[in-house]
Each structure stands twice: as structure tokens, then as C-alpha cells.
Amino acid sequence: MASRGFDNYFRDTIIVFPSLKIRSVLYTLLRHAPCAMRYALCAMPCETQGGVTMENKARAHAIISGRVQGVFFRMETKRAADGLGVFGWVKNQLDGTVEAVFEGDREQVEAVLDWCREGPPPADVTAVKVEWEDYTGEFKGFDINFAKWS
Q1: How many C-beta atoms surround the C-beta of residue 145 within 10 A?
Q2: Which residues contact 74 (CB under 8 A, 6 or more apart)?
Q3: Domain locations in the chain as residue ranges
Q4: Which of 1.20.1250.20, 3.30.70.100, 3.20.20.140, 3.30.70.20 is the CATH number of 54-145?
Q5: What is the pLDDT of residues 58-100, one digit of tens each?
Q6: Residue 28, Cβ neighbours under 10 Å: how many?
Q7: Counting runs of H as helices and runs of E as strands, what totals does the chain give?
Q8: Coil, strand or helix: which one is 142?
Q9: H/E/C letters for each residue in 94-123?
Q10: pLDDT at 130 exceeding the cut of 80
Q11: Using CA atoms, how far apart are residues 47 and 57, in angstroms rounded to an integer?
Q12: Residue 150: which pLDDT band, with cuts at 50, 70 and 90?
């Protein structure tokens, strides 16, 4: 498909879906013009990734305490992270806590951390310890580490 047709498709879609969030995502796709394969498949070094400046990117290392193992916490954390476009991993720890690393847009990372403070219905979260670290961009998705004691 020619680039012009691709751009027109998204411009037409913006009119059909007037939601600000959807429009923001679609405009982001259009702004990332240097990429031959558009946004998600871009391998070019850019000062922005997906229209969000690297200054807005964040990495959080979290330890979640309470009744967080055996209650589908890891699976639901993955679902929340995937839904918000956050990358990283989550795993159980020997001491009964859950450890996770989240990377992405700072606002989305904070949203996942807010979700972790509640957890899925069977969980009883007592504490979430967060350490903010430098964004690395090393992840390509969000993974569950099923090796229970690592």
C-alpha cells in the first residue's frame, strides 16, 4: 500500500473514531513518518518512540507484598500491562512476594502500579515498594516468569 493511502486511511479513521485517546494513537502513527514500516516495526534510532519523547519514558521495579501468590496475580498483571502498552516482566519470589519491572510511558507505568496496589479480586495487597530506574527499552513485550524461585 502506498504511504499516501496508508496516511489517508488513518485520517479517515480519526474522523470515524473521535475519542481523544484513539485520535492521539492514530496521530502518533502518522507523525512517525521516517519509518518505512510505520511505528511498531521501526528499527531506526529516533529521538521519539511512537511519538512519545524519551523523557516521558520510565522504568519501575516493584515488589508487591501480601496475599499475591496463588491468586492469578502474575497473569492479571500481564493483562493489565498489555492493555496499557507497558513492557517488562513479573515473577514470584521465594518470600511470598511478587516482583515486577515495568517500562513504558510514565503515565501508563503509573497506571499499572496503581492496578498492582489493588490486584485481582482474590489478592490482598498490603504494600507495593517501587524503585524508579533509568528507562532502558530492553523489552519487546510483557512476560511472566513461571520459574517460581529465581
Answers
A1: 13
A2: 90, 91, 92, 98, 144, 145
A3: 3-50, 54-145
A4: 3.30.70.100
A5: 999 999 999 999 999 999 999 999 999 999 999 999 999 999 9
A6: 16
A7: 4, 7
A8: strand
A9: CCCCEEEEEEEEHHHHHHHHHHHHHCCCCC
A10: yes
A11: 12
A12: low
Residue 48 corresponds to which cell in the numbers above? 521519539
User: Using an 8 Å Cβ cutoff, are 89 and 81 in contact?
Assistant: no
Amino acid (one-letter) located at 4: R
- The helix/strand/coil state of 26 is helix
Assigned C-alpha cell, 149: 524461585
C-alpha cell at 29: 502513527
Closest among 147, 80, 67 to 110, alpha carbons compared: 80
Q: Which residues are catalytic?
A: 74, 92
Q: Give residue 108's pLDDT.
A: 97
Amino acid identity at 144: I
| Radius of gyration, CA atoms only, the chain | 18
In this prediction, residues 43-66 reach a mean pLDDT of 72
pLDDT score, position 14: 45
Q: Which three cell numbers stand for residue 112?
A: 499499572
Q: Could you tell me if 37 and 3 are in contact, meaning their C-beta atoms sit under 8 angstroms apart?
A: no
